[in-house]
């Protein structure tokens, strides 16, 4: 995975949420959490795996809803932040954090009701193998996001420390078929790129987000959206 050493640095983990989800980045956090909830709800009585769980933003949210949640990540530093977060939220009994490799998931076939990964596939060097593993350990649902090839992100992607793998819809379709997954729903969002929102104050970002959402509801918005959410079921 690209950036593996960078994500395992303690100082990166400690500042990760603050740098990405404060200011206008709060709107990104809210949208991603809503996307996960829309996909996997109802959470009650489900066994759910999050791959690349990072600092536990989503695992903590889902544990609040009485699910049995496992978060897996390659970075001990990120997992430490996640464990602290669930302790602070009083939901530690519902979550297990594990260090592991997404290419070799340490679980039997059909072990989870749902498996998801957010902010992961843009760093994946072998996305097909990762998606096959996600499909293998899920008995029902696989949910993930991608950054899109035909979007404003292409303008500045080369400036990012690790860059991003960008996907076309046809590439995602091939990945799904290769993992024996059937697409049941998709959503596209953020015509304005994430980096833009992180640079502006929250009160200003909200106005841009309203305009962004309006454009995003059109065919042009779908075509040039920065991020897509893919909800699939195991065949």
From TrEMBL:
Pfam family, one: Methyltransf_11
Recorded superkingdom: Archaea
One GO biological process term: methylation
Boundaries of every Methyltransferase type domain copy: 49-140
InterPro entries: Methyltransf_11, SAM-dependent_MTases_sf
UniProtKB keywords: Methyltransferase, Transferase
GO MF terms held by the record: S-adenosylmethionine-dependent methyltransferase activity
Protein name (record): Methyltransferase domain-containing protein
UniProt organism field: Halocatena salina
């Amino acid at each position: 995975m690209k950036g593996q050493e960078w994500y395992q640095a303690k100082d990166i983990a400690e500042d990760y949420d603050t740098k990405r989800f404060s200011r206008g980045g709060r709107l990104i956090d809210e949208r991603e959490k809503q996307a996960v909830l829309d996909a996997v709800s109802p959470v009650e009585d489900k066994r759910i795996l999050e791959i690349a769980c990072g600092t536990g933003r989503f695992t903590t949210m889902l544990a609040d809803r009485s699910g049995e949640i496992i978060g897996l990540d390659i970075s001990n530093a990120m997992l430490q932040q996640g464990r602290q977060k669930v302790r602070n939220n009083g939901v530690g009994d519902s979550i297990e954090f594990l260090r592991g490799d997404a290419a070799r998931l340490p679980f039997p076939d059909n072990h989870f009701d749902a498996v998801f990964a957010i902010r992961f596939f843009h760093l994946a060097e072998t996305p097909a193998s990762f998606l096959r593993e996600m499909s293998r350990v899920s008995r029902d649902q696989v949910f993930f996001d991608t950054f899109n090839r035909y979007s404003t992100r292409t303008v500045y992607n080369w400036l990012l420390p690790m860059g991003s793998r960008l996907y076309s819809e046809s590439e995602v379709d091939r990945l799904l078929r290769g993992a024996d997954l059937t697409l049941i729903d998709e959503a596209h969002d953020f015509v304005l790129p994430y980096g833009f929102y992180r640079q502006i104050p929250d009160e200003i970002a909200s106005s841009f987000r309203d305009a962004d959402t309006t454009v995003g509801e059109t065919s042009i918005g779908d075509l040039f959206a920065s991020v897509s959410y893919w909800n699939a079921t195991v065949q």
